[in-house]
Design a protein that fits this description.
Elements: E1 2-3, H1 14-30, H2 45-49, E2 54-58, H3 61-68, E3 72-76, E4 89-90, E5 92-97, E6 112-115, H4 121-132, E7 140-143, H5 147-155, E8 161-165, H6 166-175, E9 182-187, E10 191-192, E11 196-199, H7 204-217
Parallel strand pairs: 1-2, 6-7, 6-8
Antiparallel strand pairs: 2-11, 3-11, 4-10, 5-8, 5-9
Helix pairs in contact: 1-7
Length: 220
């Protein structure tokens, strides 16, 4: 068995994730669904998502659409209460340095665009659709592997701009000092948020109910 909620994992949130998982596990057990004691937060994401004994994880929209939809069970999509987004949706913040005076995306066409993964909905697909609709894309790309690394690349001048998942950006503003060196130049259109998944054939309704009951037990 394996479970992971790694998509927004960071050291400051580890106790919160552990608390949430303990509640989810207890609710799953009430419904006759066995679950691991701890989350596997550092296991390779695709190894988790494709594990035949996957109990629960969260994936990105693009990997779900391209590779996972017919191999896993869709449980549901959390709503993070993001401004400017319908329930269960999110969007990308296109960030530049705070001291960069340019105000139009077209002025950045010769800059380096930092992105986390080419299969990231928020880091690559959403900004690609948003920018190409305006006749803009980049000859110079910087693959960083993570939203936080993309943001740091802009802050330290290795890239001119990056697209960050709105939840990740909110967390960076809360926990990372370098976020004050960045500003949002534009937002992409909202798209469906990061889905919760389980192994193929899992009881989606029972897992959804367990997750919902665990959320209800959390403090504000």
């Amino acid at each position: 068995m394996i479970a992971s909620l790694m998509m927004y994992a960071r050291p400051e949130l580890a106790p919160a994730h552990d608390r949430l998982w303990s509640l989810i596990k207890a609710e799953l057990m009430k419904r006759g669904i066995d679950a691991p004691d701890a989350l596997s937060q550092n296991t390779n994401e695709f190894a988790v998502w494709t594990d035949p004994d996957l109990v629960l994880s969260q994936t990105c929209g693009m990997p779900y659409r391209r590779w996972l939809h017919d191999r896993v069970t869709l449980v549901g999509t959390p709503d993070y209460g993001l401004e400017g987004c319908p329930p269960g949706h999110y969007r990308s913040a296109i960030v530049v340095r705070a001291d960069d005076a340019r105000t139009d995306l077209a002025q950045f066409s010769e800059d380096v665009f930092a992105y986390n993964q080419v299969y990231s909905q928020s880091g690559f697909a959403a900004p690609y659709r948003h920018l190409t609709a305006k006749g803009i894309w980049f000859e110079h790309l910087l693959h960083t592997g993570a939203h936080i690394t993309s943001a740091k690349a802009v802050a330290d001048g290795r890239a001119g701009l990056a697209a960050l998942d709105a939840v990740s950006w909110r967390l960076m503003q809360r926990y990372d000092g370098f976020a004050s060196q960045l500003r949002v130049l534009d937002w992409t259109e909202p798209t469906p948020g990061l889905p919760l998944i389980s192994r193929s054939g899992a009881d989606a309704a029972a897992i959804y109910d367990a997750f919902s009951a665990a959320l209800d037990e959390l403090s504000a």
